[in-house]
Amino acid sequence: MFWGFSEALNFVEEYRKLLPPDGQLPVSLNILLFGSGDPRHVLATASKLFQHPQLTVHFYLVEGCIELIARHMLLVAVAFENPTQLSVRGKTDLFLDLFGNTLIRPFSSAYLNSKARVLTNIVTDPDYAERYAPIFDLEALKYKERDQLENVFRFWQNGQTHVFNIARYWDDRLRAQLGERYDHRDGAFDWDLQMRLRENGAKQICPQEYKHWRKTGIAFVFPEYEQSDPNKTFAVGLVCNGNTYQHRGSVGDNTTGPYISFGQRCPEERLMRSKHGVNDFRSTDITERNVHQIVYELEAREPYHFDPRDIHQFGAHQLDMGKALNAHDTRVEQPRAERYDASPLLECTNFKLHFLSVEDVLHLQEGSRFSNHFDAAFVASNYFSFLKDGFAYTWKDEGCLLCFETRQLTTFSKEEITTHAESIKTWAKRNSLQPVTNFSINKPHSTLRYKHQQSATGAMEGCI
């Protein structure tokens, strides 16, 4: 929940790899995201669509929690924010703050307060939505889900009764999980990092950033910023009770972290250098670099050329992160409200993000609404158990790319990772899927790729 456990994929390129050498991309691609947790695939794909002006991409997003749909809308809106409102640098920092930090900067809190009003208008006024955010399609959401989204966005706005003391909730949950080990939590965190995450392949995560996140929930730290306000986008199970709200406190992943989606790989291999187990760059720095590229290319519609001045380099440095804020240190006063509704989101005429109903987690695979519809599908690791035999009817007969997220880059044990991967392979074999992933290569796979092909022409041949 809140983020994924596999790297961001450009689905246009992933699909293109399955085509024969002389094959052409279709005029449109319909891509299903079945519980992706965050918009990493959406943004990684959309940022490269300037290279394919004749191709239209439709993403269909399914999540089992209405608050996750709200977070998707917010994070995509940040990446597509109009340049008259925020610079590329500003959007990058804002995205990282809202994406991975339980406590955020006052500026980020002010943006969230203002953007929540905009998102409310988007879900309640179709004409406004068409003018301000034409990349969103909310037609599949039920009226009660639109009401729930409005409720979520209202909670995100500043208000004396909109209390979300995430610092206390995080610490309480940590104490309950660790029990007697809480007093020796640094050792527990180090064991999870070294013996689980790094052993499983997530080698870019550095000890100081990981331990700080495990203690505080603040994943992305830069010395020029101080996080002090609660990130209300982590609240789930919201129930309005008069002027107050009830919620479930701190939920979701608090052992792996938001470092996998954008923070494990980048085109510049020198940024991933390590000496004696000490990385030159943190996973935070790699995340910053990759998000900066996405935001730049969405705005400029041209390739990004890496500039070392665009990112930080703190892999080998010990930052003075200050004392961890506790429940009493969190800001109480609200920052001044800014307005971020003056300009519409960036246009992308060959891209559309369709938000499906929460009930489609179960009902998507029933009936004929999406029969023979999807060219590609991504299934998150914790949504694999929801798959039914009817899922196959949603794939296009002429070919479909299936991407299954594994538990490789997590704190699960090797036995649990292997068991889950074998379950995927068994399911794929039962549904006559052909493997695309080369399993003979001895390397960790965060995503297992398969193809569905019924056409006699064999149009989708090839192997990654």
Walk me through what this model shows:
The chain has 464 residues and is of the alpha/beta class. It contains 13 helices and 14 strands. The protein has an 8-stranded mixed sheet with strand order 4-10-2-1-11-12-14-13, sandwiched between helices. A two-stranded antiparallel ribbon has the order 3-5. A two-stranded antiparallel ribbon has the order 6-7. α2 links the parallel β1 and β2. α3 crosses α7. The longest helix has 19 residues. 46% of the residues are buried. The C terminus is likely disordered.
Question: How are the SSEs ordered, and which strands pair?
Answer:
Blueprint: H1 11-16, E1 28-34, H2 40-46, E2 56-62, H3 66-79, H4 88-100, E3 103-104, H5 106-124, H6 126-132, E4 136-137, H7 143-156, H8 166-178, H9 185-200, H10 207-216, E5 229-230, E6 239-241, E7 244-246, E8 274-275, E9 278-279, H11 283-300, E10 351-355, H12 360-363, E11 376-379, E12 400-405, H13 414-430, E13 434-435, E14 447-452
Parallel strand pairs: 1-2, 1-11, 2-10, 4-10, 11-12
Antiparallel strand pairs: 3-5, 6-7, 8-9, 12-14, 13-14
Helix pairs in contact: 3-7, 4-11, 5-6, 5-7, 9-10
Features:
13 helices; globular; eight-stranded mixed sheet; 464 residues; alpha/beta; two-stranded antiparallel ribbon
Q: How many β strands by DSSP?
A: 14
| Biggest sheet architecture | 8 strands, mixed
The dominant shape is: globular
Individual helix count: 13
Radius of gyration: 22 Å
Q: Helix and strand succession?
A: HEHEHHEHHEHHHHEEEEEHEHEEHEE
Q: Report low-confidence residues grouped into runs of 5 or more.
A: 322-337, 455-464
Structural class: alpha/beta
- C-alpha end-to-end distance: 29 Å
Spatial order of the strands in the main sheet? Answer: 4-10-2-1-11-12-14-13
Mean pLDDT across residues: 90
Portion in helices: 25-40%
Beta fraction of the residues?
5-15%
